[in-house]
Design a protein that fits this description.
Elements: E1 4-9, H1 16-28, E2 35-40, H2 46-52, E3 59-62, H3 79-84, E4 89-92, H4 95-100, H5 105-117, E5 121-126, H6 130-134, H7 138-150, E6 160-164, H8 178-196, H9 198-203, E7 206-209, H10 214-221, E8 228-231, H11 238-245
Parallel strand pairs: 1-2, 1-8, 2-3, 3-4, 4-5, 5-6, 6-7, 7-8
Helix pairs in contact: 1-11, 7-8, 10-11
The structure holds 1,3-dihydroxyacetonephosphate (13P).
Length: about 250
């Protein structure tokens, strides 16, 4: 059975002490054993996060990685830096990286290949913008963005988590309705099935992201093809993040 996952993307928030406080709150909290939990702090807080969460089953993931193995790339972090620090998961393809840091499909293909080759698990994000949904193009946009991973049938698909994040729902307080989420997630799973077969499609966790909070998590997670959430704002409060994990 595929896993239920609640993953927090902290983005560029939290000082060192605020992060420590959040991590301690998470470490003291409880959530169902069947739910896999991850937090995604900034690079500089990865080590502190691993330390504070050491006695818990909450895993620590990175928010980004560079495609090159090593070299003169000032300010960047390599796959080997992550794996050698004990990090096993990385977010790729987030709409903020696509939009603000010009991460196009060619670059994302390189990053996906580099991460998977290094043995990292990827949380691959994609989703349409508001005007694309208004024009009814959301399925085409998602199918196109998913090509980056669907065109990798040789990949170890147990290391690929998909995260549908409609851009219009990120940080806006607006969420996709449970029906909209289910419709898209079923479409995504059908694409995976067409290209990689029913078994891979059944095993792949597909997360929803975009203004997930304690008050809406349960109805979204109840949808049969929604396997959890990638949470931004609400992952910055231990109580909210734990409440979301307890919404399953
Ligand atoms: P919000 O939960 O703040 O809308 O952010 C979602 C997101 O982008 C997670 O990656």
């Amino acid at each position: 059975m595929r896993k239920n996952i609640v993953a927090g993307n902290w983005k560029m928030n939290l000082t060192h002490s605020a992060a420590a406080q959040l991590l301690e709150g998470l470490a003291a909290g409880s959530y169902p054993e069947a739910v896999r939990m991850l937090v995604g702090p900034s690079f500089i807080q990865l080590e502190q996060s691993q330390r504070i969460l050491a006695d818990t089953s909450i895993q620590v993931m990175a928010q980004n990685v560079h495609q090159a193995a090593k070299g003169a790339y000032t300010g960047e972090v390599s796959t080997e830096m992550l794996t050698s620090a004990g990090i096993q998961t990385v977010i790729l393809g987030h709409s903020e990286r696509r939009e603000m840091f010009q991460e196009d499909e060619a670059l994302l293909t390189q990053k996906v290949d580099a991460a998977l080759a290094a043995g990292l698990e990827i949380v691959f994000c994609f989703g349409e913008k508001l005007d694309e949904r208004k024009q009814g193009k959301q399925n085409d946009v998602v199918a196109q963005q998913l090509e980056v991973v669907l065109s990798r049938p040789q990949a170890d698909w147990s290391k690929i988590v998909l995260a549908y994040e409609p851009v219009w729902a990120i940080g806006t307080g607006e969420t996709a309705s449970p029906e909209q989420a289910q419709e898209m997630h079923a479409f995504i799973r059908s694409l995976v099935e067409q290209r990689l077969g029913a078994e891979v499609a059944e095993q792949t966790s597909i997360l929803y992201g975009g203004s997930v909070k304690p008050s809406n998590a349960s109805e979204i997670f109840q949808q049969p093809d929604v396997d959890g959430g990638l949470v931004g704002g609400a992952s910055l409060q231990a109580e909210d993040f734990l409440a979301i994990a307890n919404a399953f």
